[in-house]
Amino acid sequence: MSTVLYPEKTVEQTDDGGFRRQSNAFTTRFGPGSHQLPVEAGRYRLIVSAGCGWSRRVLILRRLLGLEAAISVGYVSHRDSDGWLFAGQPGGVDAVLGVKRLNDLYRRTIPDYTGRGTVPTLVDLKTGKVVNNDYHTLPYYLETAWATLHSATAPDLYPTALRPAIDLLNQQIFDDVNNGPYKILFANSLLAARIAKNIFEARLADYDHRLTTRRYLFGAQITDSDVRLFQTLLSYDRGYCPSLPPELGTAFAISDFPHLWAYARDLFATPGFADDADKIATGLLPQADGTYRYGFGTERIASVTDDAALLRWQVPHQRDALAGSPLASGPGGAGTERYWSWLERTATVNSTNV
């Protein structure tokens, strides 16, 4: 795999050959404070890639919460040696921001910026500068700070009573599942890749068990955690799985976990979870030239025809009758969510007092 298009394979590494993703550079919160970002319809543009799971997570929330009119979207197409390009837009520039590259916006914001410009990125249209690229917390802001602009039918994806448990589970989902395929594909050590694969597959088995009696991760209600898990499940079979190193042995498919697979199809059938751009990017619908995207790497293999890919995801899930308890033996099951809540309150108090 190219290290020019994927510099993280050379610079985002631990001493023992594992992949350690760079931190997000723009993390300003939304809120009424003088040093916070104001919630204002039409003020921000969200830069995304349909092929990026972190982007699709925010796009799903934008649709579910009814924020399409409040936050505009610009799509990047692919990466070269200087990062993401707007090559898929007319004239090769973003229609609103007028730039050819995402990194142009990062350098406009921090002239000596040397990291990777990442998606999703939120740009303030009043200044033309990047204000947030923190895909960890941006969903929480959309679910809470932006609540006044939600549609009347928007679900409560981050209910107050479940927030400590959601936060703990989301940390696990990110480290072991969302970031799991990258820990495998971008590792510089076969042992590190093998361990990451074992953890990833063990976590899928864990969630498969959890979903045996629950329709969603926290029972009868879709939450932010379901959106985060779904982003990787949608990408895995047609994207990450075919590209896993053969030296690691046979890779499990999502369909090898029956409850998890039915759960993924349930969410796929839920309005807002996958639009046509998502389906094209994940190889379920054909591209403009009639080929389907397949695999993950510098050049994605294009299969000429694969109508069966979408049909698999459209098989009835038969999970409508499930409800289940939000209580589970996962993160926080031994009472640690209480400590997480205490730490969160402490951090909030400290940041308020600064």
In short:
This protein is an alpha+beta fold and 354 residues long. It has helices at residues 8-11, 53-64, 102-109, 138-143, 163-178, 180-185, 190-210, 224-240, 258-268, 276-281, 308-313, 336-353, and strands at 44-48, 72-75, 78-80, 83-85, 121-124, 129-132, 292-294, 301-303. The protein has a four-stranded mixed sheet with strand order 2-1-5-6, sandwiched between helices.
Structure report:
- Helix 2 (53-64) packs across helix 8.
- A 4-stranded mixed sheet has the order 2-1-5-6, with helices on both faces. A two-stranded antiparallel ribbon has the order 3-4. It has a two-stranded antiparallel sheet with strand order 7-8.
- It is built from 12 helices and 8 strands.
- The mean pLDDT is 91.
- The longest helix has 21 residues, at 190-210.
- The chain is an alpha+beta fold and 354 residues long.
- It is globular, with a radius of gyration of 20 Å.
Question: How much strand?
Answer: 5-15%
The largest sheet, given as strand count, sense and whether it forms a barrel, is: 4 strands, mixed
Overall geometry comes to globular
- Kindly report the spatial arrangement of strands forming the biggest sheet: 2-1-5-6
**SSE string, helices as H and strands as E:** HEHEEEHEEHHHHHHHEEHH
Give the helix tally: 12
Helicity level, as a percent range? Answer: 25-40%
Structural class: alpha+beta
